[in-house]
Amino acid sequence: QLQLVESGGGVVQAGGSLRLTCTVSGLTFSQTTVGWFRQAPGKEREFVAATTWRSGRGVYFADSVRGRFTISRDDAKNAVYLQMNDLQPTDTAVYFCVAGTTRAAHAMTDPDNIKLWGQGTQVAISS
């Protein structure tokens, strides 16, 4: 069955950290570019981060999270992780794991290159 399942969301205070996990099934994970989008209340979904499956393991981040968030993957576990540090109230959103059709991490910023979305996990940051 083709699916992405997120976990790890929750409520933390500003300045805190969370680690999101996405488990992937039904895909050749080791040959799939994966990443994260988010959607804040009343706003459109926006790209957060992506990592490609190529040997260079290219990564790409949105300007708003670069330097605070890291993305990693474990091909043996079919999992991708988003480590979020120094969280701010503006990071409050539903976070979606995604799998893409592109080999380029930066191209994952275009929703047209996303072939599969997870159901999302809520992240809330209190000030």
The first-to-last residue Cα distance is: 40 Å
Number of helices: 0
User: Which class best fits the helix and strand makeup?
Assistant: mainly beta
Low-pLDDT windows of residues: none
Amount of helix = under 10%
Strand content range: over 45%
Rounded mean pLDDT score: 93
H-E order = EEEEEEEEEEE
Q: Largest beta sheet, briefly?
A: 7 strands, mixed
Q: Give the C-alpha Rg.
A: 13 Å
Number of strands: 11
Helix and strand arrangement:
Layout: E1 3-7, E2 10-13, E3 18-25, E4 34-39, E5 46-51, E6 59-61, E7 69-74, E8 79-84, E9 93-100, E10 114-117, E11 121-126
Parallel strand pairs: 2-11
Antiparallel strand pairs: 1-3, 3-8, 4-5, 4-9, 5-6, 7-8, 9-10, 9-11
Describe this protein's structure.
It contains no helices and 11 strands. By secondary structure, it is mainly β. Strands 2, 4, 5, 6, 9, 10 and 11 form a 7-stranded mixed β-sheet that branches. A 4-stranded antiparallel β-sheet has the order 1-3-8-7, with no helix packed on it.
List keywords for this structure.
7-stranded mixed sheet, 127 residues, 4-stranded antiparallel sheet, mainly beta
Tell me briefly what this model is.
The protein is an all-beta fold.
